Amino acid sequence: MDTNKDIPTVPLNKFIKHSLEILKNPLPFHRQNFNDKGDTFRLKVGFNTEIFFSRDTALAQYVLQKNQKNYVKSKIQTVDLAKYVGEGLLTSEGEKWKKQRKMMQPAFHKRQLENLLSGMQDTIVSEFATIATNKSIDLFPIVNDLAFQTVVKSLFTKAAKAKDMERLQFITEANQRMLVRELRQPYLGWWFKISGTLDKYLNLSKEARTILKGIVEERKASGKRYGDLLDMLLETRYDDGKGMTEEQLIDEILIIFTAGHETTSNALTFSFQLLAKHPEWQDKIYEEWLNLGGDDADVMTRISTSKVCQQVLEESMRLYPPAYFIDRVNVEDDSFNDMHFEAGSNLLFSVYEMHRHPELWEQPNAFMPERFADGSRKFSSQYFPFGAGPRKCIGNNFAMFEMIIAVTELISKFKIYPEFDEIDITPLITLKPKNAFLRFRKR
Ligand code: HEM
After folding, report:
1. pTM assigned to the model
2. What CATH number does residue 316 fall under?
3. Residue ranges of the alpha helices (H) in 292-421?
4. Ligand 1 contacts CB of residue 376 (under 6 A)
């Protein structure tokens, strides 16, 4: 019996007809269907496969928060990504996830993160020192490197060899590119296996694990403490008093690299593009920075009091959420309002569409950071850049701290100008910027 009959359907032939444009950028296709069918529709993507797309914020809260026990992540994270980065916080489920989350949460508390701030700032300052002025440059590679180095330095304050880190960055990014290929071209799965392509990338993961094992063992043997994330992860304990196994620790480090670098570099790049388009907000950030004491202000004060900068970042992640969709599968049958979902249904929440829902946001496509003047909590039922519920991003404070330092640092030293007409996007696993060409002038 077709128990989902009340949810409008987009037929398979429509999906096939638009498949080429969906491969390039699925967002206009989603938008069209939301406009035609309403806030939740099901899309037939095979003869027996369908995905429920939703921009219904109440349903998202129900699935991610209220009834989260009945929902697991889809295989994209728990199988496809896990084969490269292992089974850790982002990729595990059930009791294993719960145990890891409880154990790792303290390492990401605001107070613990304070120890990492001056290292973050040094990394950001030296990265921006490479910016060339008065010519058009692509900001994304600079910011991407900044985000990777920030994670590296926060994990390993000392003793990380530059050559090893370059290799880890190369491997993390290469494996993410391979995962995108696998997800976008699932019909080539057999070819990736027999041609040895997949093995090539799995071997890269092994190489990354060997590098990390060396770093961890060296740290343990040194008997020294640096107060970085690695120390915290080595010292934290499960309820039974035991620490993580070395293999588990390596999984978690690989996951922090993966989850913590591309998302942040996308958010930062979009923010700078928006600032270039809206110079009045550069002026407001600069004024705030001056009022807070400029370069003399201590970094924690700067983070906790840079309200304008925070509003700009929040508005930027509303318009361009790096994690632009969140997916779940229900374990048992479930109903919400008039909708029924049989066990095993694939639900995909479009964060991008929820953040631009015309009934929820005034002028949804306009850049208006002032809407966040009272903080993002005001919109907690419709604003999900870091997800919601127990699986909400563990690195959200880390990311906000890093981004506030980066934006205030750059805007206090440079005026930025756009070298593009409209902001263009590449929706892959994360929502990536496409044309972040900017011109910089020293203040
Ligand atoms: C702007 C930057 C970031 C954005 C937009 C972002 C977004 C998200 C979202 C939406 C989720 C939830 C996914 C889901 O429910 O399926 C998530 C989970 C996660 N994020 Fe982030 N993230 C960011 C930065 C970071 C950073 C800097 C780190 C680490 C240093 C990090 C580590 C993680 C981890 C480990 C998880 C899995 C948590 C769990 O399942 O318990 N993220 N992130």
Report:
1. 0.95
2. 1.10.630.10
3. 299-305, 307-319, 351-354, 396-413
4. no
